[in-house]
Amino acid sequence: MTLPPSPLVDQLDRIERAREARRRRYLLEDERITLSHGSGGKASRNLIEGLLVPTLGHGVLNGCDDAAVLDLAGTGRVAFTTDSYVVSPLFFAGGDIGSLAVHGTINDLATAGAVPIALSLALILEEGLEVAVLRRVLQSIQTAARAAGVPVVTGDTKVVNRGKADQLFINTTGIGRVRNGVSLLATQICPGDRVLLSGPVGDHGIAVMLAREALEIEADIQSDSAPLHEMAAALLDAAPLTRCLKDPTRGGMASCLNEIAQLAGLAIAIDQARVPVRAEVRAACEILGLDPLHIANEGKLVAIVPAAQAAAACAAMRAHPKGVDATIIGEVLDGPADMVIVRTDVGGSRVLDMLTGDPLPRIC
Amino acid sequence: MSDAPALRFIDEYRNPELIRSLLAEIHRRAGERPVKVMEVCGGHTHAIYKHGLEDLLPSCIDLVHGPGCPVCVIPMGRIDDAIAIARHPDVIFTTFGDMMRVPSSRGSLLDAKAAGADVRFVYSPLDALKLARDNPQREVVFFAIGFETTAPATAATLLRARAEAIRNFSVFCNHVTIVPAIKAILDSPGMQIDGFIGPGHVSTIIGTQPFAFVAEHYRRPIVISGFEPADILQSVVMILRQKAGGIARVENQYARVVRPEGNRRALDAIGQTMELRPYFEWRGLGFITYSALQLRAEFAEYDAELRFEVPGVRVTDPKACQCGEVLKGVIKPWECRVFGTACTPDRPIGTCMVSPEGACAAYFNYGRYSLSARARPPAAKHVVS
Fold it and tell me: What are the tens digits of pLDDT across the range A166-218?
């Protein structure tokens, strides 16, 4: 007697197949660059892993870390990072392209466990840009750099024809000294480690979206743009065994946690109810059909810390003015590999995937 | 945040205690026999996955994801037509975001944009009209899609365009109506649906009366439902109660929003500007008579199909794609031949994989873990210190 095929086994087989597809090597199959390639989600990963890394090679250029760490013989390790800023509009509640260019690069150094030393500043200006606008951005850069204690030491300026850039693009490069004994890598996380988050998510992305789109939603939502190096240092003092730090920028918490889980080959589970989200951001996301976990942040720190040091790490973040809402949101599990799972506030569970394209609103 | 103020009409419908009591009743009423409940609206599908509701239901309750995702039912040929319009050099083609990634027979609108077409996404047809006002030298076309939920906004925009005598604006109308689709499903051979979670948003416009035939003619309970977890679970309870009592009627769980008579003003606006098409192709369901809307003759000058040459060719769906069976509830998303392999949200073959409301995308993005979790408990215990 043969047993009839079990539908459940069939289901699991297919689920496994889908998971395999998800784990599949990233490939760039597109013929042209679309905006999705800049969204920080899957298409961005396809571009980086499918074209940039294979062409330029691995070595110190690891496509998945925000900063390279160079071992300079005799002088210790140096963190080295670069980032370009093309935000539109240039000014938004809580910040502007200038302060963002300073904070973003400092934060890439901070998440590598480095003390920032200096920044470079490259400006690409569109013909016709008002000098008053440029002056305002430069003042913002100066204020942000001084407040963070990280000077701008070199730079470059180019002007392009009208229409060849959108007012003003900025690139900043940063170097920093990696703290002694600190090595932060996603591959170091272990099952049982705790996932910490320094505060409410989604503020930056929603603030820019409200400033950009003709949404006519009035809400007091400010970008969280802020330098994180001091909070990161305090956290590393309190929890020296910290496995890795990340700042959940483009693609939000979803991209950040998925990158960590995939590099480590482990699972990360978070509790939706523990992830802080401001009521205004939550309301805006409900209206626009967006998930706060997909929205960009520019002043939040995610830390993965061994359970024994999680309370100390959390206390250190809370002692910092930018981390008063810091909390433990979840933990690392040994499976299902490469996945991020959200335990929903009604008691169900769901997979949290990277965003496929730009966060576009649902239509009904 | 735990101390954050509650969002009215959201938090009370996610209250864990309310959810627990509804689940208790569902578990109590669930018998041996499987009950198939179709949620008609894509918004429900999305909410079910987003909140992991299938995890919480007894295994005999089978939620079937219906045809109510407006992106999912647009046939491929219409996207070809849209791209043909968008390629005109003087056209600004405006669309809701979800439509940007839907594949036509040759690429998506997003690809057309990368190749030089001026495609922009808008949140409302009124935004498209504003673009027309601001760019008098360009032709602005709005890609109108959706059920009765979005049709009134298109209608209001058309009325305003005429009142303001804006001539460089037109609508590529693909509005569809939900009732013929539900009927098509009820008439399809092998149909096994025991009850329906009715479309909440559509019902705000058309009211509850148009669904009476489901109960009267087909003897199936239908409960018009809201979109929060407690709404959906309560609707399941109401369907189970009807079944237990051996009755079938239209009930309104979403009474805080839906009036039995619907929204007269919205219906009037639709009636002034649009009329039923004799037939329209639905992806996966085929041609359904009187199931879609077109602009009335009085609005011909605003009809993009008349203003621009469109191929108007019917494009057969890719062979491997089983969106049709998914939409009819014949198969589950993961039972499709290409689900998760050739067809993923990155590279969708079928429309169900594109919109976050599409059953396949919702299942791919949110649902996979729940099923495997049911059969294989996760290796580590869920403990958070």
Answer: 999 999 999 999 999 898 999 999 999 999 999 999 999 999 888 876 666 77
Tell me, yes or no, if A185 comes closer than 8 A to chain B by beta carbon: no
Specify the amino acid at residue B338: V
A15 Cβ under 8 Å from any chain B Cβ:
yes
Asked if A214 lies within 8 A of B127 by C-beta distance, the reply is yes
Chain A residues with CB under 8 Å of B52 CB are 342-344, 346-350
Q: Chain A residues with CB inside 8 Å of B100's CB?
A: 357, 360
A82, A135 contact by CB (below 8 A): no
| Four-way CATH pick for B8-321: 3.30.70.980, 2.30.30.240, 3.40.50.11740, 3.40.50.720 | 3.40.50.11740
Closest CA to B38 of B62, B21, B17, B9: B62
Q: How many contacts does A have with B, using Cβ atoms within 8 A?
A: 198
ipTM passes above 0.90: no
Walk me through the domains of chain A, giving residue ranges and CATH numbers: 29-63 (no CATH), 66-178 (3.30.1330.10), 186-351 (3.90.650.10)
pTM of the predicted model as reported, rounded to 2 decimal places: 0.83
Domain boundaries, chain B: 8-321, 323-370
Contact B69, B356 (CB under 8 A): no
User: CB under 8 Å to B370, separation ≥6 — which residues?
Assistant: A348, A349, A350, B52, B54, B55
Instruction: Report chain A residues whose CB lies below 8 A from the CB of B9.
Output: none
Cα–Cα distance between B16 and B67 in angstroms, integer? Answer: 30
Residues B231, B237, B238, B240: is their CA dihedral positive or negative? Answer: positive
Q: What are phi and psi of A351, to 5 degrees?
A: -85, 135
